[in-house]
Specification:
Strand order of the largest sheet: 1-2-4-3
Helix content: 55-70%
Distance between the termini: 8 Å
CATH architecture of the largest domain: Up-down Bundle
CATH topology of the largest domain: Four Helix Bundle (Hemerythrin (Met), subunit A)
Radius of gyration: 38 Å
Strand content: 15-25%
Number of helices: 8
Number of strands: 6
Shape: rod-shaped
Oligomer: single chain
């Protein structure tokens, strides 16, 4: 079980730059990817999305990618050869025109500072891509750890509520048997079926009342849904939607039980069961 909320960060260094990838995931009914990338990495956006979709099934994913130049990045001195050629041409022309003495050699070059330019070494596109996806993999590992850690906490809470739901189902089974016996007595000769039926159902049809008071079938289905829910909780895949669907089934059975047996003890158990269902539902909203 994984939570939909988490955070992970990864970094990688390439010639002249440090690349950082930050991932933040939030609750969302579907998969929603939001990327913020520098212009140098726009060409890799679809590949980034594909990598994320392979690892995350549901939730909002916010991706922040940064690229920072390193101060101690390798630098090189570049000679402006076209400008040097122009200097040489002009100097030769001036020497000839004005009869100047002396030879031109490299000792003159430092006098022309505009001939030289200091530039930072640029990494190749391939190296940049490798660094980017290395940082992305590191961020994903940390994100998964974060989501798994919170998922364990959610599972502990859900299992606790599920355990209480199973106890409530067992108590409903006992109450159903008790109410059923009382209904049978009310329907037997010498009893007062009309008065009892009117109290519980508002009509005097004893047979209808006895049939409506039988919740054995609903309780059996309730036990079955809870057992299936316990199995789903132990699965490792994306289970948030499965849990939500099964909770609807559990809630439906509790509603039916409550409507069939307007008995105070049963009503209290039904309400307690619905409260547990809602608590699990709240937690399920955070599960992938």
């Amino acid at each position: 079980m994984k939570s939909m909320t988490g955070y992970g960060e990864g970094t990688a260094q390439v010639l002249g730059a440090r690349i950082t990838v930050q991932l933040r995931t939030l609750n969302h009914r579907h998969l929603d990817l939001q990327l913020r990338t520098p212009r140098e990495f726009l060409a890799f956006e679809e590949e980034i999305r594909k990598s994320l979709r392979q690892r995350i099934a549901r939730g909002r994913i916010e991706v922040f990618i940064g690229r920072a130049a390193l101060r101690d990045a390798p630098r090189r001195l570049v000679l402006n050869e076209p400008l040097l050629a122009e200097y040489v041409r002009l100097l030769r022309s001036a020497k000839k025109k004005f009869g100047l003495a002396g030879d031109m050699d490299v000792s003159l070059l430092p006098n022309f500072s505009d001939l030289f330019q200091v530039t930072e070494a640029e990494p190749s596109a391939r190296a940049e891509r490798q660094a980017l996806f290395k940082a992305l993999r590191g961020a994903l590992v940390k994100l998964e750890r974060s989501r798994a850690r919170e998922g364990r906490q959610l599972k502990t809470d859900i299992v606790s509520h599920l355990k209480q739901l199973r106890k409530i189902a067992a108590m409903l089974q006992n109450e159903g048997a008790r109410v059923g016996v009382r209904h049978e007595r009310a329907a037997s000769p010498g009893g007062e079926p009309a008065a009892q039926a009117k109290t519980l159902e508002g009509n005097t049809d004893t047979d209808s009342w006895v049939l409506k008071g039988d919740i054995n079938e609903e309780v059996v289905r309730l036990h079955s849904h809870l057992a299936a829910l316990a199995e789903v909780v132990d699965e490792r895949d994306a289970i948030g939607k499965k849990i939500d669907f099964m909770l609807q089934e559990v809630h439906r059975e509790l509603n039916t039980i409550g409507s069939k047996v307007p008995d105070l003890a049963v009503t209290r158990l039904v309400l307690a069961g619905k409260e547990r269902v809602e608590k699990i539902r709240e937690q399920a909203q955070n599960i992938e």
